[in-house]
Amino acid sequence: MRQKLVVGNWKMHGSRASVDALLGDLAGGTAGAAAEVAVCPTYVHLDQALKLCAGSTLSVGAQDCSHMASGAYTGEVSAEMLAELGCRWVILGHSERRQYHAESDDLVAAKLAAAISAGLQAIVCVGETREQRENGEAEAVVGAQLKGALADQASLEGLVVAYEPVWAIGTGLTATPEEAQDMHAYIRESLDGIAGVDPAQTRLLYGGSVKAGNAAELFAQPDIDGALVGGAALVAEDFRAIVEAAR
Ligand code: 13P
């Protein structure tokens, strides 16, 4: 039985005051939730978030990490540093990283190797663009992203995969529960061919305009094990409602 997981990806949002306010609400407000709940603030808010979440059921993750262990890599943050700080999770291969920072599957694979070696639990993101979907390439694209990131890793225990169709991110367009379920089933099937993954135990999150109003329908699908939430994760009431929908 896979416990539902709801992760807030705060992207490049927040201030010290807003992090205080949001986590002040969420740390108590999600106690007793049926789902496991995590938040991923910016690097500069991680320490503050970790302190505010201490003693609560909320865990904390980063939105990215370097593929290198240490050295002269200006601007980078290593997986080890995140683990030492107390982070549990790291999001890797988000489509915004692929789009704005030209991250390739090879780079995502190298980041995943660094995360695994540091003991972080990775949330690896995959998803097709609207054009790829319209051309009937959605499964081929997602399958290649999975293989590209996951092949030849030392250990994939605790891996989480997030399916985020690029056309649904921040657009208000959500994949229908059936579309999302079809791709999640395909992802689970594809994981079967990858060494070190137990497809039945691997949690698959849906991401892309998840809101309080559509979360329950998505979570009711057999292969959807939770959500990676962007915009709605910044509003305590909305995020709590999504967490509640996993009950
Ligand atoms: P939205 O929920 O704002 O569409 O963002 C989804 C996302 O990219 C989460 O990683």
Strand-helix topology:
Blueprint: E1 5-9, H1 16-29, E2 36-40, H2 46-53, E3 58-62, H3 79-85, E4 89-92, H4 95-100, H5 105-118, E5 121-126, H6 130-134, H7 138-150, E6 160-163, H8 177-191, E7 203-207, H9 212-219, E8 226-229, H10 236-245
Parallel strand pairs: 1-2, 1-8, 2-3, 3-4, 4-5, 5-6, 6-7, 7-8
Helix pairs in contact: 1-2, 3-5, 5-7, 7-8, 9-10
Bound molecules: 1,3-dihydroxyacetonephosphate.
Residues 9, 94, 164, 169-170, 207-210, 228-232 line the site of 1,3-dihydroxyacetonephosphate (13P).
Q: What features would you describe in this structure?
A:
The protein is of the alpha/beta class and about 250 residues long. It has a single domain (about 15-245), classed as TIM Barrel (Alpha-Beta Barrel), CATH 3.20.20. About 40% of the residues lie in helices and about 15% in strands. The chain has ten helices and eight strands. It has helices at about 15-30, 45-55, 80-85, 95-100, 105-120, 130-135, 140-150, 175-190, 210-220, 235-245; strands spanning about 5-10, 35-40, 60, 90, 120-125, 160-165, 205, 225-230. Strands 1-2-3-4-5-6-7-8 form an eight-stranded parallel beta barrel, surrounded by six helices. Strand 1, helix 1 and strand 2 form a beta-alpha-beta unit. Helix 3 (about 80-85) packs parallel to helix 5, helix 7 crosses helix 8 (about 175-190) and helix 9 packs parallel to helix 10 (about 235-245). The chain is globular, with a radius of gyration of 17 Å. About 45% of the residues are buried. The mean pLDDT is about 95. The chain binds 1,3-dihydroxyacetonephosphate (13P). 1,3-dihydroxyacetonephosphate binds near residues 169, 209, 228 and 231.
